[in-house]
Structure formats: C-alpha cells, structure tokens
Amino acid sequence: MRIAELRVYHHFLILAQELHFGRAADIAHITQPALSQQIARLEDGLGVKLFAREQRQLSLTPAGAVFRDGIAQLMSDLDRLTERTLAAAGGEDYSMAIGIVEYANLPLVSATMSLLQQAYPAARLTRHNIHCVHHGSALMRGVIDVGIGIVLAERQPPMPLAAGIDSQRVASSQWRLLMPQTHRLAGAGRLPLHCLGHENVILPAREVNPSVYDGIMHACNAAGIVPNVVYETSQALFGIQLARDGLGLMLGSAFSLDVAPPGMVTVPLDGLPALEIIANWRADECRAIVKQFLELLGLEGCRHAELGSMSPARTRKAATKPAPRPS
C-alpha cells in the first residue's frame, strides 16, 4: 500500500467523521477542492458512492459506512503492526500525543503527565491544540493518543464519537468570578447568575471552547439576562491582568482560578452548569504508556472528582499508586 493511498484513506476518515468538506479540509490541512477530488477519485476507483449529497447535507451511504469501519480497523491494525515491529526489534515507542487546549489549565492533567514521566523517564509527550469536537477524527487518524476536553455537565457532548472511541468523564468543577479585593462584591459568599448582567464581565473567548461558550450564553438567556461582556480573552493570564486592573470580573472554572493572585479574590457563581473534564481514547488501545496515562488519570479520588479546589500539589498527593517502570 502506497503512502499516497494511506493519506487519502486518512482524509476519507476525517470527512466521514466531520461530514462537512470545509471542516474536514481544514483538519487535513488541504484545500477543499483537493479533498473533493480525492474523494471523487476514491469513489471512481471503488465504483460506488461513499457519500450522499442532498440539499447541502452530506451523509455516508450504506457502502460508505462499511468502508469507514473497515478503513478505521485497517489503520488501527497498521498501528498495532508498527508496535509489534518495534517490540520485535527490542524497542518500544514511548511517545504519546495529547489533544488539549492549554487555556483550560487543568492541574489534574499536568500532575498526571508528571507522574507518567516518573514511570517512563524516556517518555516523549507532545501536545496538539485540538478542541474536543475534533478528538474523534484526530484519534482515528492517529494524530493524538488521548484527548482531554471540557464540556458542560447538563449538555450533551458537542459531537458523537465514532465507533472504536471510548470516552470517560474524569472530574467536574463549578464556576468562579475573579475580582480585586477592593471590589464591592469581594466579600460575598456566593454570587447569583444575574450579576453577570449588571457587572462588567471578562469571558474566555468562544474560540477557546465554542460549546462551553454557547452553553454559558444559553444558560444566561434561559435566566432572562444578557451578560455584560466587556472583553473576551484567549489568554488566561491576560484575562487575570484585566480583572486586576479593574476592567471587569473574570469568569473561570474553579480549577483554573483555584488560587487567587495577590490582591484578588474568587467568589463562587451559581446558576451555570458545572464543567466536566472528559478523556477520549481509542477503544483498542494497547500501548503500555497510553494505558498507564489513562490509569493515572482515573485514580481513585480523582475519577469523577469535584475539582472545586484541587490544586496541582493536592492532585499529585492523591496519585499515590506506584506506576510500573518499563523494563
């Protein structure tokens, strides 16, 4: 099988996941016309239609669904073959790719990565800035080994995961508002959601997590308020600086605003659905380093835990189960 054919199959799997030529082309880092031509040639070569195109809606034909499942299995088998080849040569692949948006600032994940490094000193960890809506396709293509994302607890996951992808909710967190100690609301024990319509608010930008951003707006609309948003930031540290300088109250998760900077306080906010950390991975994953990471991520005391005030130090302390070192 030629490399060019493998690339086309990867692109087919992306389109089968996204069911949208524009999004699929962006993920594959090719132009939309090039992707369309690849799929057309693939269909011509097979002599069947893999996609149905009706009224600008794209869907898999029955033949396309069969082909998708078969190609996904083929790619998985090729990955396993590579691993067995390395093992036969006396080596093992200690690399692992994680899909995560760093803005989330998850202490649970950073602590787990540190523990993994202790268990596998030769580990090579790489990060891809991939939103959870794209975890399924990234896992199917082998771009990442584990996806870590954030969703709102009361909303469905932003997209269904493909067959062969497992998902687990790892922990949850409530919301907080960051403000200077001199602010008139700094002494409040808790704040209601409707205060977002009366105070200047700094929000994480929609590009950081579109489904969570839309969920916030939906909850506010349901409560009959319009948030008085004065700034949307894609950099948490800049948002904190804006709040420190008095531009507005910064909305964030309990795990990202666990410890308030000097001269500032955080106040719990009621009325928004809790945030949940989710992990996604390939169901047939057999590499030891990936399985070890998932095990550490789901340690008792952390699985489905409430991260209302779990700092990185507390998370490391909770993870006391020794990890086996590779031979």
UniProtKB/TrEMBL annotation:
Where is the chain membrane-spanning? none
UniProt keyword list: DNA-binding, Transcription, Transcription regulation
GO cellular component entries: protein-DNA complex
CDD domains, alphabetized:
PBP2_LTTR_aromatics_like
Q: Which Gene3D superfamilies match?
A: Periplasmic binding protein-like II, Winged helix-like DNA-binding domain superfamily/Winged helix DNA-binding domain
Lineage: superkingdom: Bacteria
Please give the Gene Ontology molecular function terms for this protein.
DNA binding; DNA-binding transcription factor activity
Q: Which residues form the HTH lysR-type domain?
A: 1-61
The positions making up the signal sequence are none
InterPro entries registered for this protein in UniProt: LysR_HTH_N (IPR000847), LysR_subst-bd (IPR005119), WH-like_DNA-bd_sf (IPR036388), WH_DNA-bd_sf (IPR036390)
Homology family: Belongs to the LysR transcriptional regulatory family.
Task: Name the chain's protein.
Answer: LysR family transcriptional regulator
Organism encoding this protein: Pseudoduganella aquatica
Q: What is the lineage of its organism?
A: Bacteria, Pseudomonadati, Pseudomonadota, Betaproteobacteria, Burkholderiales
